[in-house]
Description:
Helix content: 25-40%
Structural class: alpha/beta
Distance between the termini: 51 Å
Amino acid sequence: xxxTFPRLLLEQARLRPRDTAMREKKYGxxxxxxxxxMAQLVEALACGLHQAGIVRGEHVVVxxxxxxxxxxxMLALQSLGAVPVPLYQxxxxxxxxxxxxxxEVRFAIVEDQExxxxxxxxxxxxxxxxxxxxxxxxxxxxxxxxxxxxxxxLVASGGVxxxxxxxxxxxxxxxxxPEDVASLFFTSGTTGNPKGVVHTHANLIDRARxxxxxxxxxxxxxxxxxxxxxxxxxSIFSYAQWLVAGxxxxxxxxxxxxxxxxxxxxxxxxxxxxxxxxGLLTNVMIRMEDAGAIKRAMFHYFMKVARRVGPxxxxxxxxxxxxxxxxxxxxxxxxxxxxxxxxxxxxxxxYTAGEAIGPDLFTFYRSLGINLKQLYGQTETAVFVCLQPxxxxxxxxxxxxxxxxxIKLSEDGEVLVxxxxxxxxxxxxxxxxxxxxxxxxxxxxNDAGIIDAQGHLRIxxxxxxxxxxxxxxxxxxxxxxxxxxxxxxxxxYIKEAVAFGDQREKVxxxxxxxxxxxxxxxxxxxxxxxxxxxxxxxxxxxxxILECVEKVNADLSEDAMLAGSQISRFLVLHKELDADDxxxxxxxxxRRGFIGDKYRVLVDALYEGRSEQFIETQVKFEDGRxxxxxxxxxxxxxRTFSTMKGAx
Length: 648
């Protein structure tokens, strides 16, 4: 049955008024909001926003971390037929200008002083932005700006209005239709300005229901909402599915307390990008290296047992009696304590997506008894396209089409999707919409993929990024930069990688080390260093990274299709790639073209055979200050391997 988000809220409040809808940690204490409380807050906000001048169809920017009152604000806007436009809370002020102007935004509802400062900074370039409301009053006492008000004022005035007009709120909700626009999500903008993806209530709710049915989610689930609300994945997991299933969403106190808060909550349904899982594993391995000899030996022994037995148990395959007993002992001594330490002791379903996850990393978590799976989707598809069944989780695929989804491959290998969750279009951009939506309803994902014999989808790279080598021993061979980069990032010592090779005779890469993992590795060897730049250029670190690169080359040499993508030369960058410097998107995707232009001198040095190159780079801090980082970077050569028979 088709419905809208505000109607779902009223239904949950009717079915389970006193049950917990959301928790928020404040000053170390979890504050509870029931479904009845949430409905009452939404009504007060909707009435207050109506009095402030919000009209049906209007776009309203919402900026902040996951907070119950910001979720309530989005529901209040949708109750009035307005459209919330969530923006990334860590975006610099100038990144907000295009979305605000493009969507003709008059009202901004933000979390705190930091976000207020951003809105005030760009106000002269967004003249229509006349109203700014903030949730957290800390630091706001001496602000005197026209149109700047506390969200409390809306709640108070709206509460009075609701008392005098008891039928207004429900009347407004009844005016809403499933095909009305529910939200506008701006893409990360890897090239040019971001595009506004228009989704209706029907789109988002349909995909939420598909995910719920696939994994048999119930109102008993606990979810930790710690990723940016502007990312559609977080919006699906902690907003759309929350309202459909009626489970509990928990909001951490801050980004710095997520690990602690996760341990306290014990989520049952969890999502994290691969880099989060990588970071958790890196911390585990660092702690193990610092542990005593007996504890370390026990850990490594039982992890060998887990890797042999765990994935089979998770997939329902038969396991011998001795292995079952060994695994049970390992569960008591290692696996259960480790799951507790990670805050994953209650997880029933865990997903990762966005980038490929390394086979070793994937196996590690499933070996522990954590039901980690992969999914495939995009902003334009309302996330859920392919999901992995519990007994068919694989590191090299992204699953099978979920309910209502059709997929096929075009002649050039592009993945095409038809689904009830497809975008309505790109806001004010019919040309871009026509480029991705065919007349017969297929969405062009721009991802190159393969469908295996079991119907599982395997993603290789972005279609536009797949290229060919030119000249040299691999002339004409396929080059998939993202595939190469992801293989490098499977190693805990490598945080980020940028590969080049299209229309060149060989592949070269720039690498960011993982400062924490490599720093710990260096300290255990008594190697002093004075920061990231110094550590990155240590000869010993180059040897460490060279070992990783050559392992990737050995792996690629066995791939008939991508053997030509072996890495010939590499360097370790003198700074970490950063979204504030324009090198990554806000969802931490590499902006390869931008990096290639910015570091042209390094790209030239890699391909001209130089052994080192001086570079000076301006770095921007979160508070707007800038500084310069310079270094003479070493450039290393890597061994490549003979390809298997039949390789391109």
